[in-house]
Amino acid sequence: MSEINLGDLRQQIDVLDEKWITILAERFRVTHEVGVYKATQGIDPIDPQRESAQMEKIAMLAEENGLAPDLAKGILRLIIDAVVSNHQEIAASLSNPDNS
Amino acid sequence: MSEINLGDLRQQIDVLDEKWITILAERFRVTHEVGVYKATQGIDPIDPQRESAQMEKIAMLAEENGLAPDLAKGILRLIIDAVVSNHQEIAASLSNPDNS
């Protein structure tokens, strides 16, 4: 067994942090498009059915990958709250273009 | 401009969700090694200096990638809390091997 080197492990963590940030930024670019679509179609930004399906799916994915499902759901909760708030802003700016 | 297709966008989101779950699972495998190292060396699981450096770095990375820094910090908070709790469990099981 090779010796554990704290510096090496922290470097691995930093690389992984950069990766999840990049992926979540990409995810927000996609959900922004969803927000524009929903706003132009007059669809409610909040979709409890889709949301609960996403929560179930993320918990299952976490379980499969050995990540604590409650942590994954907690993170998805923060993400969805930010997405809904962004969608509400998009809808508001479309209905009141002068305020944008 | 091509027409927005909600199904396509949601499929992209699902792929990205799978990616961040995989990355965070990998991150926990690395921090678990850090926990074992710290426990065997008698190093405190909580490292406020490292933590505040990580928070600053994640906020900067988020900013650079167009992700809300507060959201990134909120997610990192959940991750660090789970990591610290895992490190405390590792330390406890090493000092009381009969309870493991």
Quote the beta fraction of chain A: under 5%
Helix-strand pattern of chain A, N to C? HHH
Identify the biggest protein-protein contact and residues per side: A-B, 45 and 45 residues
Rg of chain A, Å, rounded: 18 Å
Helix content of chain A: over 70%
Number of strands of chain A: 0
Distance N to C terminus of chain A: 60 Å
Keywords summarizing the entry:
homodimer; 100 residues; mainly alpha; 3 helices; 0% strand; elongated
Describe this structure in words.
The structure is a homodimer of 100-residue chains. With 100 residues, chain A is mostly helical. Chain A is 81% helix and 0% strand. Chain A has helices spanning 6-41, 48-65, 69-95. Chain A starts with 5 loop residues before the first helix and ends in a 5-residue tail after the last helix. Chain A contains three helices and no strands. Chains A and B meet through helix 1, helix 2 and helix 3 of A and helix 1, helix 2 and helix 3 of B.
Write the layout of secondary structure elements.
The structure is a homodimer of 100-residue chains.
Chain A: H1 6-41, H2 48-65, H3 69-95
Brief digest:
The structure is a homodimer of 100-residue chains. Chain A is mainly alpha-helical and 100 residues long.
